[in-house]
Design brief:
mainly beta, 7-stranded antiparallel β-sheet, 385 residues, single chain, Jelly Rolls
Length: 385
């Protein structure tokens, strides 16, 4: 997804015998995308990484199920009011909206994961509204903080170690994978000089060398179910690796916004792309500079796209009644736009302080029972008066 990096000890050529200083043969793991046609990472283990025993499932979060169908309305979910489970991240996700391409939820871990997790159903992307901590993997440790996106590739063994204090993360699971939008890359795969970020803006894993935390349990999510396995040895026994598939963090404030003569569409804010979905970052920025420009987003009909916004902080020129942690959902097929007074009131504005994560997706989003419990019943009518 990003550039290739090398950590620790690796052989001069892949798929050849590689031994440690004592002469013991190391085991090469091929961690691949798209079968063997996509990006890959090769890691070198002291022990056989595939030698596991079946075990009893003792962890896992509630998986999404649809609430009964409802009418086509603009909706607002106050996640600040969501009764969230305590405990480790592996147990503390709550799905709110979902389709075949994405699961949107919230996680509030209050303890470190006591097991390793491998999500075989999709790539995970978290946005840290509050908190921070450490992601531990066989490839190294990734430190993250408030306002970071945290990317965990599909199938990578890992566990979260949250820092002190409250934690509140937006969670996005993408069964079809996640990548950087192709329009931001040149023909060699490098990020273009006019892209809204550069390779330097991403924080990569820090090499730790082989570790043994005493944890032997692995939880695997696959086909919408959890499965458990047990190792005899530590799976964090990697002595080195190289490749282009690894976790990373991206601070949202590293996104370089654009301004136009008049209002630019959300695609200019595209940060990550997925099958059937685009993740956009709205950050503080200067706004349109035509003398008669209307900086507030225009009313628009989106017959093809469901749009959700996760509000982080700042002033949202087009909305009222939302706050940090709010999720608005404007479904395809119904026109949406700014609240009364916001359109005209934005004329003459020169900057905006809004900070938000937006998700556009092509397939309709279904709500879970947890989402229904935190819905703002007056949101639809708030656009009329």
């Amino acid at each position: 997804m990003l550039d290739r990096i090398v950590q620790g000890a690796v052989p001069r050529k892949h798929h050849i015998a590689f031994r440690d200083p004592d002469g013991r043969l190391l085991h090469e793991e091929a961690f691949t995308r798209a079968g063997f046609d996509g990006a890959y990472t090769l890691a070198y283990h002291r022990h056989r990484p595939h030698a596991t025993h079946a075990a009893e499932v003792r962890h896992g979060w509630t998986l999404p199920r649809a609430a009964p169908p409802r009418g086509l309305l603009k909706r607002h979910y106050r996640t600040q009011e969501l009764p969230l489970p305590a405990g480790p991240a592996v147990d503390a996700r709550v799905p709110l909206l979902f389709n075949a391409d994405v699961v949107v939820g919230l996680a509030t871990p209050s303890a470190e994961d006591p097991v390793y997790l491998s999500n075989g159903d999709g790539d995970d992307l978290f946005f840290v509204l509050e908190g921070g901590g450490l992601l531990r993997t066989p490839l190294g440790d990734l430190r993250f903080a408030q306002d970071d996106y945290v990317y965990v590739p599909k199938g990578l063994l890992h566990r979260f170690v949250p820092g002190a204090g409250p934690q509140r993360w937006l969670s996005l699971e993408f069964p079809g994978g996640l990548h950087l939008p192709s329009q931001w890359r040149n023909e060699t795969g490098q990020l273009r000089m006019d892209a809204p970020y550069s390779h330097r803006d991403f924080r990569r894993v820090e090499w730790t060398g082989p570790l043994d935390e005493g944890i032997r349990e692995l939880l695997v999510k696959r086909a919408g179910a959890f499965h458990a396995f047990r190792y005899d040895e530590s799976p964090l026994d990697v002595v080195g690796w190289d490749g282009a598939v690894y976790p990373f963090a991206f601070p949202i404030l590293n996104f370089q916004p654009r301004a136009g003569l008049v209002h630019l569409p959300p695609t200019w804010h595209g940060t990550f792309a997925a099958r059937g979905a685009l993740v956009c970052s709205f950050v503080p920025r200067v706004v349109d500079f035509h003398p008669e420009a209307i900086p507030c987003p225009y009313p628009h009909a989106s017959p093809d796209v469901d749009e959700i916004l996760f509000y982080v902080r700042g002033e949202f020129t087009s909305r009222r009644g939302v706050g940090p942690g709010s999720i608005s959902h404007h479904p395809a097929g119904v026109m949406h736009g700014p609240h009364p007074g916001a359109y005209e009131g934005s004329i003459g504005a020169r900057t905006t302080s809004e900070l938000a994560v937006m998700l556009d997706c092509y397939l309709p989003l279904a709500a879970t029972p947890a989402a229904l419990g935190i819905e703002d019943p007056g949101y639809q009518e708030s656009f009329v008066r």
